[in-house]
Amino acid sequence: DHPLSWAAQAFVQCHLGRDLEQAHASVMEALRLAPSQAMAWMYRTTIESLLGRTDQAYAAGQRALELTPLGPLRYYPCCLAGHAALFDGRPQEAADLLEESMALNPSHSPTARMLVVAHHDLGQWDQARHALSELFKALRARGMTLMVSSHILAELEEYCTEMLILRDGRIVEHHAAEAAAPDAIRLRVSL
C-alpha cells in the first residue's frame, strides 16, 4: 500500500466515479499511511468541499499549503485552499490565496474563475471585472474562442479581437476591434 496510489485513487473516485464517500475513504487511507503527503491533503480539500464540510476543507487546504511552501506547483494548493476559504465564508483570505495562485500560474482558469467570485463576494467590482478580463485574455492566448455579451465597450477593448453588433438576433455590423481607435467607436441607440 502506497499513500500516493491511495491519493490518486481518491482523485479518480471523486472526479471520474463521482463517489465522494469512497474518495473520502481512499484519501483518508493515504493520510493514515503518510500524514505529510501533500497531494493527499490537496485532494482532501476538494473532497471535503464537495461533501459540504467547508471547515474540514479549509483545514485540509491550510495543511496542503504548509506542506508545499515552495515550488512550481504551489499554485495548485493555493487554488484549492482559496476555493475552500471561499466556501467556508472567508472571501478576503480566498482572494489573497487565489491572487497568489494567479501570480504563479496566470493561465489556470479554475483559479481565475474563483477569483472573480471572491472579489464579487467582497463587493470589489473593479477587481472582479479585472480578474474576468485576465481570464478571458489567458483563454484567448491558449487559442480559445469566446463570445462575450456586454454593453461596457471599454472592457471589451481589453480582450476582444472582433466585435459584432446584433439587432433582433441578427448580425448588423462586424468590426475588427484592433482596427478602430477608441475615439472612432460610436454607439447609436434607437428605440
Which structural category do the helix and sheet elements fall into?
mainly alpha
What string gives the helices and strands in order?
HHHHHHHHHEE
Q: Into which percent range does the helicity of residues fall?
A: 55-70%
> What is the radius of gyration?
21 Å
Unreliable spans: none
Please give a structural write-up:
By secondary structure, the chain is mostly helical. Helices cover 62% and strands 7% of the residues. The chain has helices at residues 3-15, 20-33, 38-50, 54-67, 75-87, 91-104, 109-121, 125-141, 153-159, and strands spanning 162-167, 170-176. A two-stranded antiparallel ribbon has the order 1-2. Helix 3 packs antiparallel against helix 4.
Q: How would you summarize this macromolecular structure in one to three sentences?
A:
The chain has helices spanning 3-15, 20-33, 38-50, 54-67, 75-87, 91-104, 109-121, 125-141, 153-159, and strands at 162-167, 170-176.
Outline the fold blueprint.
Blueprint: H1 3-15, H2 20-33, H3 38-50, H4 54-67, H5 75-87, H6 91-104, H7 109-121, H8 125-141, H9 153-159, E1 162-167, E2 170-176
Antiparallel strand pairs: 1-2
Helix pairs in contact: 1-2, 1-3, 2-3, 3-4, 3-5, 4-5, 5-6, 5-7, 6-7, 7-8, 8-9
